[in-house]
Amino acid sequence: MPKKMIAAVLDSPGEGNVLSLREVGIADPSPMEVLVRLLMTGVCRSDIHLLRGLWSHPLPVILGHEGCGIIEKVGMGVAESRVGEKVVLTFAPNCGTCRFCVAGRNVLCEAAARAAAQGTLFDGTTRFSADGKPVYHLALTSTFCEYTVVPHNGAITVPAQTPPEQACLLGCGVMTGLGAVLNTAQVRPGESVAVFGCGGVGLSVIQASRLSNALPIVAVDAQVSKEAAARQFGATHFVHAAGSDPVQAVREITDGGADYTFEAAGLIDTAEMAYRATRRAGTTVLIGQPAENAKAGFPLYGIAQDEQRIVGSSYGSARPLVDFPKILRLVEHGRLDLSHLISHIWPLARINEAIATVETGTVNRMVLRIADR
Ligand SMILES: [Zn+2]
Ligand SMILES: [Zn+2]
What we know:
Layout: E1 4-10, E2 20-26, E3 33-43, H1 45-52, E4 61-62, E5 66-74, E6 86-89, H2 99-102, H3 110-118, E7 128-130, E8 133-137, E9 147-151, E10 155-157, H4 164-170, H5 173-185, E11 193-196, H6 200-211, E12 217-221, H7 227-232, E13 237-240, H8 246-253, E14 258-263, H9 268-276, E15 278-286, H10 300-305, E16 309-312, H11 320-332, E17 342-347, H12 351-359, E18 365-369
Parallel strand pairs: 4-8, 11-12, 11-14, 12-13, 14-15, 15-16, 17-18
Antiparallel strand pairs: 1-2, 1-4, 2-7, 3-5, 3-9, 3-18, 5-6, 6-10, 7-8
Helix pairs in contact: 5-6
This protein binds zinc ion (2 copies).
């Protein structure tokens, strides 16, 4: 059991700031927690929002929330037999007793939200430290490091043969995109879909729309270079967001507006565009993660007259214990492609370069290798 490890720490957010790779202390897991040795982690836009100061968080903090690793040690109350299991981390562990958990909405767990806001685990304390002071957890996960401690039900067991670079993506991007279509919107065969933003989340929305037999599936992105990937994952049409009138283009392709539009860029403009590209009585699903204080403008009269629905989807309305095995079964049988979502696998040591590359908007998913096995 290590007492020290290397972690990428965020000390002070801002434009041009970087994470600092350095030694951080890590404590044993407390009761009902597990210590995980990390193998792979994905880099998500939300990590970058924190680095750039769009979201506030207690500091210093170890970022990263898409992780796959091996359970190395268990706290009291957790079966010793879990040691050695390959797991995917989830930032929606389930306290099991709040009203949302009881209702099966564990993305909205009140205890998890409280812990995440204060940068701790469920008991209000951290397992990371430096110079006798706490180093905070991100969303009960923290994966830009060699080891992490998470609640036992924040580590979902996956088959030993699952490639860790694919498995880690279930932790956020893939679950968020697939779940928005399959859980939140529940798109049915023949319904039309338009997706704004073709990063890891948007491409997962496209794949899930194909699984649902949606038609047409229109991908919209500001980078023309995203067209190939969008089509590969199931888009039937591609619209360049910087073109003359992308909303009009979507409305034409979908014969008056899509039954479902998905906003997966986290921007005010694209949220408004997605709404305008939705047909009467259609549903606009907001997935993207905007700045904390972002506000969009929607026409009240039109929403009422046209019976429009604007719904939020957080983490694909995930129930990780139910959804992760389902997703992995689809992957195993070739119905879902996670391997081509990964455009880069770099070592953790290159994390700052990796973040800069993700910020160019040209990456599908950036994965960082922490250990080989
Ligand atoms: Zn994320
Ligand atoms: Zn709960």
